[in-house]
Design goal:
It contains six helices and five strands. By secondary structure, it is an alpha+beta fold. The chain has one domain: CBS-domain. Helix 2 links the parallel strand 1 and strand 2. The structure holds adenosine monophosphate.
Length: 143
């Protein structure tokens, strides 16, 4: 199974904010969309960073209530790791585990084409396991 299998059911929609947006506006987007991270895109549509709820937590721990007055660019992670639609699910699971994050933008030949989360990966793995178990059950009962 590949990242493209996740995008096949999830689509290519990426929810984003701008680097100069206020943190309060970005938090409102996370809450309204019920997601854990937003991609930060510059005016030209290039990836400028990623902002996750973890970054919000760290900003609050560091700055207290003043964190809410920060800009997204001050709180986000600028060095964004991406994956390719042809990457295997095992590969992205390894990346997420080793790098300790739960979100990966999907980029093919420099073009942003989706965003996957650890929840999407787990869901696909569960479906895969269910299919394997069904196939085994069928094989055993047919024998
Ligand atoms: P998460 O577990 O995805 O909520 O993120 C944990 C930390 O990793 C936060 O500081 C995020 O900004 C950062 N992060 C999340 N996804 C990525 C990514 N694809 N590339 C780089 N940093 C990331």
């Amino acid at each position: 199974m590949f990242v493209s299998d996740i995008l096949a059911y999830k689509g290519d929609r990426v929810i984003s904010v701008a680097p100069q947006d206020g943190l309060a506006a970005a938090i409102a987007v996370l809450a309204a969309r019920r997601i854990g991270a937003v991609l930060v895109l510059d005016a030209g549509g290039a990836i400028a960073g990623i902002l996750s709820e973890r970054d919000v937590l760290h900003a609050m721990a560091r700055d207290g209530a003043a964190a809410i007055t920060r800009k997204v660019s001050e709180v986000m992670t600028a060095a964004v790791v991406t994956c390719d639609p042809d990457d295997s699910i095992e590969h992205v699971m390894e990346t997420m585990t080793e790098r300790r994050f739960r979100h990966l933008p999907v980029v093919r030949q420099g073009r942003l084409c989706g965003m996957i989360s650890i929840g999407d990966v787990v869901r696909l793995r569960l479906e895969e396991q269910r299919r394997e178990a069904d196939a085994l059950r069928e094989y055993i009962t047919a024998a």
